[in-house]
Amino acid sequence: MSVTASHKATTRQNILDAAIAIFREKGFQKTRVSDIVSAAGLAQGTFYLYFKSKEDIAREICKSFMDSFSGIVEADHNIFESRTHIELHNRLRKMIFSALKVFKNNAEAAEIVLREGIGQGGLFKELYENLIIRFIELLGERIANGRSQNMLGIPNPDTAAVFIVGLVERSFFFFMVMRKDLNIDAIADDMTSFILHGLDLRPQQ
């Protein structure tokens, strides 16, 4: 990477980091572009070389999360076609652990996505809802595959996907935002067992 390209990447990241800090402090709706550039130590004109608006930054934050979570789910597309219950348990736990790790490694951005997406209106809520809907669709497809393979007994895969995403969403919000304590190993263990019980694992032949 050239010096110029490296400088541009650093400046862009500085703007994103400043925006995340201000969004956390003031909320998305009350944040102005001038607040972001002041926190980043840049001229306002520099901001517009990288982003069109604060809404542009919101889209990037949500897209980053969507890409991360989609990648986790899509990486193991046939998870519910596992040959044994133990294999399924281990693969599901790995998926949940990976999702928790994304949140923990991006805690400040994750807090904004959860607070603004769950509790506020406007663009962030719209972006967040699109993210959640896509995640439900991906998970529903995986559960339907497991049902067709006679691994799962849950009667309605789409409903089950909504329940699971709701569980994950509220659990992340509670442990990350309210408690600020994310023991991802313990949570992954408990969540895996709870989800598999709810999906009604069929007895193995």
At a glance:
By secondary structure, the protein is an all-alpha fold. It is built from 9 helices and no strands.
C-alpha geometry = elongated
How many distinct domains?
Answer: 2
**How far apart lie the N and C ends?**
56 Å
Q: What is the average per-residue confidence, as pLDDT, rounded to a whole number?
A: 86
**Percent helix range:** over 70%
Low-confidence stretches: none
Helix-strand category: mainly alpha
Largest sheet: none
Order of helices and strands: HHHHHHHHH
What is the CATH first-level class name of the largest domain? Mainly Alpha
Give the topology.
Blueprint: H1 3-26, H2 33-40, H3 44-47, H4 54-75, H5 85-105, H6 107-119, H7 123-148, H8 157-178, H9 184-198
What keywords describe this structure?
9 helices, Arc Repressor Mutant, subunit A, HTH-type_Tx_Regulator, 205 residues, 2 domains, Tetracycline Repressor, domain 2, mainly alpha
What do you see in this structure?
It is built from nine helices and no strands. It is mostly helical and 205 residues long. The chain has two domains: 1-51, Orthogonal Bundle (Arc Repressor Mutant, subunit A); 55-198, Orthogonal Bundle (Tetracycline Repressor, domain 2), CATH 1.10.357.10. α6 (107-119) packs across α7 (123-148). The longest helix is centred in the middle third of the chain and has 26 residues, at 123-148. The chain is elongated and about 65 Å long. The termini are far apart.
